[in-house]
Amino acid sequence: MVSPSELKYTKDHEWVRVEGDTGTIGITDYAQDQLGDIVFVELPAAGTAIAAAEKFGEIESVKAVSELFAPVSGEVTEANDSLADSPESVNDDPYGDGWMVKVRFSDAAELDGLMSADEYEAFIEAESA
Amino acid sequence: MSPETETLLHTPLHGEHVALGARMVPFAGWEMPVQYAGIVEEHNAVRDAAGMFDVSHMGCFEVHGPDAGRFLRYVSTWDVTGLAPGAGHYAAACREDGGILDDVYVFRLEDERWLIVVNASNAPKMHDWMASHVAQFDASLVDRHRSTAMIAVQGPDALARLDAVAGADFMRSLKPRRCAETDWNGHALFASRTGYTGEDGMELLIDAPGAPALWRALLEAGVTPCGLGARDTLRLEAALLLYGNDIDEATNPFEVGLDWVVTLDDGADFLGRDALVGIEERGAGRQIVCLRALGRGIMRHGHAIRNGGAGVGVVTSGGFSPTLGVSIGLGFVPPALGETGGRLEVDVRGKPLPVEVVPRPFYKRPKKS
């Protein structure tokens, strides 16, 4: 499992791809593997305010429901509506087609508190040991 | 390894699961595989070809003696005394008040040798309960739980795969709900044409030392290893009940559609009989129904069922159906709301999910042409 080096990561297994004052959010390859077959993703609509470390959506695998936690605060500018018809994209391509929401950051300084790819991989190694 | 996992029991196939890279989880005191490749892939393997499950955590007891049949009649709701050697039947075991202690499968191996298979979560309870009653009979209880492995091989190709492993003559002699015993490479092997997936197939019991070789032979024959995750999605599509979810000691057979395993007209005394006669006369106050989602949410065990905003029942099993591509569930509702085609709502963490009452089961295997 290789975590893309250009992304930032949280302990809740979300990632952020920073693009200026906006970013794309998804869950990591490790997270999708732990969840198993994903069958439903509930995401906030564009315009919704989300807050760092707070729940912004839900993800259902065959086995169970899990909460999605926002890596950063901001306003949702776009949700990945294609996940309604193909939630399996989260399993197949967690860093690409399986993205969840795009957000305009309200406090870009929050990004400094997130992990690099190397730090995240060390974190999941420690967590699963 | 955490202290928790150290105390979990291992089946004779534990090493096989670990070697296959299965994800292991605690279940009813055992460390069991929940999935290997993935639940949906395993589910589809059973619907389309053949899959196998380690179900050695389930309890199994032999009952020996001239009164073995009478004893099993006394502890089960169905009249097992009519079973011929080589036949089996599903039944319930009830408390005096009609509450279900367990749902079981009873097989008659020989005239005076029987087998009863119980749920893993109930195995210690059922052992103690049966042991407390067997003394009144000229019969004895032999616990085979820890000395035996159980493998369920299920799917449209299950029998063809088993032919190659255990001999076509032996396997093809078994009609549905029939059982037989044979020798497999020096190990005692029991097979019954039963299952918990809605597909054709067999459930095998083999003495523990022979289990890994049998498992590997099945793998080589092209049977897909499947975990508890797929076992649950398969049994839910077939609307088969799960003890602890859909039934428990506060549930009686009539409200969960198990009328067909209650024999009241043979005059035989059995535990729970008087209570069940009364419940049958009064009628059940609730009934279990099949619910199919009309929206995209997923209903789960414990979610409230509503009708026009008012709470009317509860989902006992819920999840996603890989075969139907939508959420399905079992749940209790008042009999007046149990009609097929009725519309209800399930409260999915505060959001209403519209559902329809549909015929039982959700999935029926296609008839062989």
Fold topology:
The complex is a heterodimer of chains A (129) and B (369).
Chain A: E1 8-9, E2 14-19, E3 22-27, H1 29-35, E4 38-42, E5 49-50, E6 55-61, E7 65-69, E8 74-79, H2 89-92, E9 101-105, H3 117-128
Antiparallel strand pairs in A: 1-2, 2-3, 3-9, 4-6, 5-8, 6-7, 8-9
Chain B: H1 3-6, H2 14-19, E1 23-27, E2 30-35, H3 39-48, E3 51-54, E4 59-64, H4 68-75, E5 87-94, E6 100-110, E7 113-118, H5 123-134, E8 140-143, E9 148-154, H6 158-166, H7 168-172, E10 179-184, E11 187-192, E12 201-207, H8 211-220, E13 224-225, H9 228-237, H10 273-282, E14 287-293, E15 304-307, E16 310-321, E17 326-333, E18 343-348, E19 351-358
Helix pairs in contact in B: 3-9
List keywords for this structure.
heterodimer, A: 129 residues, alpha+beta, six-stranded antiparallel β-sheet, globular, B: 369 residues, Gyrase A, domain 2, six-stranded mixed β-sheet
**Shape label of chain B:** globular
* CATH homology group of one domain in chain B: Probable tRNA modification gtpase trme, domain 1
- What string, H for helix and E for strand, traces the elements of chain B in order? HHEEHEEHEEEHEEHHEEEHEHHEEEEEE
CATH superfamily of chain A: RNA polymerase II/Efflux pump adaptor protein, barrel-sandwich hybrid domain
Rg result of chain A: 13 Å
Alpha-beta classification of chain B: alpha+beta
Portion of residues in beta strands of chain B equals: 25-35%
| Cross-sheet strand order for the largest sheet of chain A | 1-2-3-9-8-5
The secondary-structure class of chain A comes to: alpha+beta
The low-pLDDT segments of chain A are none
Helix proportion range of chain A: 10-25%
Question: How many β strands of chain B by DSSP?
Answer: 19
* CATH class type of one domain in chain B: Alpha Beta
